[in-house]
Amino acid sequence: MKRIYMDHAATTPAHPDVMASMEPYFSERFGNPSSIHSFGREAKKAVDSSRDAVASFIGARSDEVIFTSGGTEADNFALEGIAYANQNRGNHIISTPIEHHAVANSIKTLVKRGFEATFVPVDSDGLVDPDDIRKAITKRTILVSVMHANNEIGTLEPIADIGKICREQEVYFHTDAVQTFGHMPIDVKELNVDLLSASAHKLYGPKGAGMLYIKKGTKIVPYLYGGEQEMGRRASTENVPGIVGFAKAVEVAKGEMKINDSKLVRLRDKLIDGILSMIEDSRLNGHRTKRLSNNVNISIKYIEGESMLLRLDMEGIAVSTGSACSSGSLEPSHVLLSIGLTHDVAHSSLRFTMGRDSTEKEVDRILEVLPKIVKDLRKMSPLNRGNN
Ligand SMILES: *Cc1c(COP(=O)(O)O)cnc(C)c1O
């Protein structure tokens, strides 16, 4: 049985061209970019041209792109780097209750160290109202951080509008664009952002590579201290193969983003409409149209997401749930609670995230298998108020 992978928001398989581009930098071109000799120069050239490619992809200058170990480091760097560099101006940070843990836990740590945070609410679709950001800004505000698209429910946030407000108020603006980078066009100038995070493994690149865009002139302190790599902003020997693979992933994305997008929207909508029409007491989480083209997040009432996940896994279908079962915790997702779901409904959610290789056949298979699983589980479920 061919397995079906519907968890591209968690990670994506490296593209064959990405793997081919990386290979030489493990072997014959293994040099350290800081070395003066030809081996070093070869590696440095590869890092430089990768930086050019990634920067131009988002309308940035090359010296505004800092390579990191991934999205988490980029988020931590943005939040802590701005906070500590601008303490003289204020200690107030504004964000949302639906951020990825890489942002949320950075803020939590900063609050422990004396910073203050305001979390503007989101509506029932997970949308932030830019006006709420405007109202939350005070004289002490130094940074606003709002994600470009939510990784659980797929909702796309009005980043350009929020950025405009931050510009007017002279407050730094960071966006976690890990879920959109390489999947839709991004222009840092149009988005009015000062900082933007991305991660290679979410766009068919390697794990352990990412970047932080830092607008020229932004006051920020480094996150890692050591050598002078990355223009003195991020010490440690560069992950040359990872950086080269990241740039190749960007090049591939540039070529096929548009084609993938229209296919994914079609598959996404087929899956959403199919589930909602075939399964009673199911609901879509996240905005219906302002949403990532590959994201389907559904609550299927009266059954636990984990039970469905395990049954789907037995059928070779890989999805994820709205609760942190992997960490052994029974807490439902902070995102689903923030959009107003009850604990029960939040626990009954499933996330399908498609990718460039997803097919209509796979969607058909899910629509064949899932209703049976739901029927079965509802028969056994003590939560079932539907049919007994
Ligand atoms: C995956 C993800 C991250 C973390 O990126 P890593 O490269 O895995 O550290 C951060 N933010 C969002 C929205 C993500 O989806």
Structure write-up:
The protein is α/β, with parallel strands linked by helices and 388 residues long. It contains 12 helices and 13 strands. Strand 5 (141-145), helix 6 (159-169) and strand 6 (172-176) form a beta-alpha-beta unit. The longest helix is centred in the last third of the chain and has 39 residues, at 240-278. The two termini are 35 Å apart. The mean pLDDT is 95. Bound molecules: pyridoxal-5'-phosphate. Pyridoxal-5'-phosphate binds at residues 70-72, 75, 100, 102, 147, 151, 176, 178-179, 199, 201-202, 210. The site of pyridoxal-5'-phosphate has 15 residues, from helix 3.
Keywords:
alpha/beta, binds pyridoxal-5'-phosphate, 13 strands, 388 residues, globular, 12 helices, Aspartate Aminotransferase, domain 1, 13% strand, four-stranded antiparallel sheet, 2 domains, Aspartate Aminotransferase, domain 2, seven-stranded mixed sheet
